Amino acid sequence: MTNPVTIAQEGRSAGPPGAAPSAAAVPDPATTDSTDVADVAIASTALTKRFRGGQVAVDAVDLAVPPGAVYGFLGPNGSGKTTTIRMLLGLVAPTAGSATLLGRGMPAAGRTVLPRVGALIEGPAFHPYLSGRANLARLDAADRTADPRTARHRIDAALARVGLGNAAGKRYRQYSLGMKQRLGLAGALLQPRDLLVLDEPTNGLDPQGTREVRTLIRELASDGTTVFVSSHLLAEIDQICSHVGIMSRGRLVLQGPLAELRGEQDAVLTLQTSAVPPAVDILRGLGLTVTEAGGDVVRAAAETAGAPAVQDVAVALVAAGVPILGLALTRPTLEELFVALTGEGFDVAR
Ligand SMILES: Nc1ncnc2c1ncn2[C@@H]1O[C@H](COP(=O)(O)OP(=O)(O)O)[C@@H](O)[C@H]1O
Ligand SMILES: [Mg+2]
């Protein structure tokens, strides 16, 4: 299991130029240098929310978000992500259970902890008749820890960072959904934060905007900020996550380092060739379990442990004179993992 973890970590963190690739899931130095970083950025124990009417929206959720992680909080619409986030931020009281942010109990420690937390939640309360810039100015002014003398600089930097520089003077009500979302993000970025909690930050964004948000999250994470980001679109953010937690019907059905969760799943080797029978013999000879052979395709299960590397398979095939039209090693996507775990499609459950 060490291999896939290492590969994924190297792929994720850009690191300083010239730096040796990190060998394992080492916390970002920027995080470890900081004096008051908690062992877990977010933790919850049996966090539960039952709404009036009896519906359990969040059911005994135990979150563990390590410092420095980009934690993808994934789940279909209605699975309880926003309700969980509202409880974490002290916006709604849990029915049962507890939560900590940066090591401090919520909601009791809200006054001390929340200034270190940037949050983007559903339907941010912006003033419709004020411009984007004026809205940010109001937000900034409400922050007791923000120096008013540097407000202009902070606001312009945040607007530029989310690509709203040119639309800063426009009224909020004239913003598109994507622009509103960007402004919400800018609000979360006014100050440097130890933790960012972003509820569906890519909602309403076009593919380009989605890519920009991904890049932004990567940048923030490489500065040492822990990012907790929710999405109902698995594929949209799984590329940037170091960790994932997957919600289904109010329950956290899966949680952990992404590379590990993926690594536990068998990889599949797919070979396209005009010589299927000899190819099957070769693959079996290499110790692979052939799961499918027909037409011009051979598929084999390639468990991470003990399976030959793709290049060894290629060498053996070539040596035996088997033409290779295509050869790929694929792992199940997060979505396939989810379906395998829950027996459900990744869509609205109720
Ligand atoms: N204020 C509320 N009152 C009653 N039910 C609610 C309320 N907010 C959310 N719910 C219900 O709780 C469930 C989880 O919702 P939510 O946390 O918004 O999910 P997600 O963010 O994953 O889409 C849904 O079934 C939703 O209808
Ligand atoms: Mg939601």
Compact summary:
The protein is of the alpha/beta class. It has 13 helices and 15 strands.
Structure description:
- Residues 1-37 have low confidence and may be disordered.
- The protein has 2 domains: 2-262, Rossmann fold; 266-330, 2-Layer Sandwich (Alpha-Beta Plaits), CATH 3.30.70.260.
- The chain is of the alpha/beta class and 350 residues long.
- Strand 8 (195-199), helix 8 (207-222) and strand 9 form a beta-alpha-beta unit.
- The protein has helices at residues 2-12, 29-33, 81-88, 110-113, 132-141, 151-161, 177-188, 207-222, 234-237, 258-264, 276-285, 310-319, 334-342; strands spanning 42-50, 56-61, 64-65, 70-74, 96-101, 104-106, 117-120, 195-199, 226-231, 243-248, 251-257, 267-272, 289-294, 297-302, 326-330.
- Helix 1 (2-12) packs antiparallel against helix 10 and helix 6 (151-161) packs across helix 7 (177-188).
- A 6-stranded mixed β-sheet has the order 7-8-9-4-10-11, with helices on both faces.
- The chain contains 13 helices and 15 strands.
- The protein is elongated, with a radius of gyration of 23 Å.
- The chain binds adenosine-5'-diphosphate (ADP) and magnesium ion.
- Adenosine-5'-diphosphate is lined by residues 51, 55, 57, 75, 77-83, 350.
